Amino acid sequence: MIATSWQNIPEEQVFAMVEELDTRGPRYTSYPTVPVWKAPLNRDAFIKTLNRLGKDDEAIAVYLHLPFCRQRCLYCGCNAHITHDEARMHRYMDALETEVRRIASEFHFPVKHSQLHLGGGTPTYMPTKRLAQLLDLVIEKIPGAKNADRSIEVDPRVTTDEHLGLLAERGFTRISAGLQDLNADVQHAIRREYTLLEISEFIERARARGFQSVNIDLIYGLPLQTRNSWRETVQAVASLRPDRLACFGYAHLPSRMKHQQAIHEEDLPTSRDRLGMLFDAHRIFGAEGYVGIGMDHFALPEDDLAVAQNEGRLWRNFMGYTTTRGLELLGLGCSGISEFSDLFAQNISSPEVYATAIEQGHLPLERGHELNADDRVTKQIINHLMCNLEVNLPDQFDVIGSEFSARMQQAMGQVGSFEHLGLVEKSESGYHITQLGQLFVRNLAMPFDRYLAEQSNVVFSKTV
Ligand SMILES: C[S@@+](CC[C@H](N)C(=O)[O-])C[C@H]1O[C@@H](n2cnc3c(N)ncnc32)[C@H](O)[C@@H]1O
Ligand code: SF4
Description:
The chain is an alpha/beta fold. It folds into 2 domains: 6-28 and 373-454, Arc Repressor Mutant, subunit A (Orthogonal Bundle); 36-370, Alpha-Beta Horseshoe (pyruvate-formate lyase- activating enzyme). It is built from 15 helices and 19 strands. It has helices at residues 11-21, 43-52, 86-104, 128-141, 161-169, 184-190, 196-208, 227-238, 271-287, 304-310, 351-359, 373-388, 402-416, 435-438, 441-445, and strands at 60-66, 68-69, 81-82, 113-120, 144-154, 174-180, 213-220, 244-249, 291-293, 297-299, 315-317, 320-322, 329-332, 337-339, 343-347, 365-370, 390-392, 424-426, 430-433. The chain has a 9-stranded mixed beta sheet with strand order 9-10-8-7-6-5-4-1-13, with helices on both faces. The protein has a 3-stranded antiparallel beta sheet with strand order 14-15-16, with helices on one face. A 3-stranded antiparallel beta sheet has the order 17-19-18. Strand 9 and strand 10 (297-299) form a beta hairpin. The longest helix is centred in the N-terminal third of the chain and has 19 residues, at 86-104. The chain is globular. The two termini are 25 Å apart. The mean pLDDT is 92. Residues 69, 75-78, 119-120, 122, 153, 155, 178, 180, 217, 219, 248, 250-251 line the site of S-adenosylmethionine (SAM).
């Protein structure tokens, strides 16, 4: 019988499979993926979408990007900008507030938010007063449904009690803190230092302020990490009992992220060790009572994400995993991404160019994509595959046309060809992805992606 769980196969055998199947490919945080989106996006299509939001009394999700940080972590792949210039930060915040007002003036219906997320950069690097002003404006212009889920990403090193108090007062109940690794040599190599005691105290402070959900971000594949040092980090972090954990594979793209060039490539763990570290995280967090969410997230079993995954209704958008399928997402601020059922749009990524566009009265859109029927159905298939580990074609998928049907059948055939490796098993409606197959979800999604053939010039990160 084919082993379908990597825990039942010797690691060497899994490594050999990975070497055979390892390729580069999109992460599918969206479909169509960002490199497919074109500039400029049709402005009228964007406004038309804003005009219909809230029509059926449905709340939206709102994302605000605050790009500034105190210092650069060498591994960072986010749209983050280091500054100590308060005037620069205030100019950006003025622009962001103008964007909020301008977007809200295009609403034709009383739009509410049910999810509000602040990301970055480091939103809590902003002085509390300025953060309060932004939050009050957003809540006034896009009021929250009574129990709106409000969450924030923070760097605990710059997050004061005053920040935590302000956020709690404004209804934030979820906080996500970046930690990455606890080993002193690794921390030195990535220029980010923080002790176990400090993170433990930070979690206590957040809980004392009433945060109900604390997430910790870790990264595997960092310079000087070994499997032993990583296991120690994972074990120590598990003992802090965060509600959720994310273990991201380090994305090393020094040609795009110049500061990553300061990382010595010879210090990076091998592909085998990277994968071994992901296994270690599954073993240790599993033994500590956490449930794996998707491939690299973990949650306590009573957490909403774990419950949603159990019930086959886990979903993903640009803010990460969510329990609400198909929520329209409005992304504001530089590089902010909006994800609507009929279009994607992304704002200009430089904070200064973004602010200038706003000051000149323009919408700061950089690029986007209007989804046709083919894109919409494919997006549904890929998202369901990535989140709920099932590969099937939705009812009436063939109404789109014979070319689409033939392509989908062919993609299903390609997925089926992975059955003999134990990555998928036949199910009533298609295929179920096994635990082993979870390591290769990106490979399983790629056959459905009609744009992939045109993207030979795009550098993707490794699929595993
Ligand atoms: C916007 S950052 C975190 C918030 C905050 N600025 C901090 O550093 O604590 C979100 C997360 O992305 C992850 N991340 C950043 N760069 C990465 C990279 N190159 N590869 C993988 N994960 C990365 C880190 O785990 C980080 O905590
Ligand atoms: S990891 Fe966080 S704190 Fe570090 S540079 Fe990136 S966004 Fe800023």
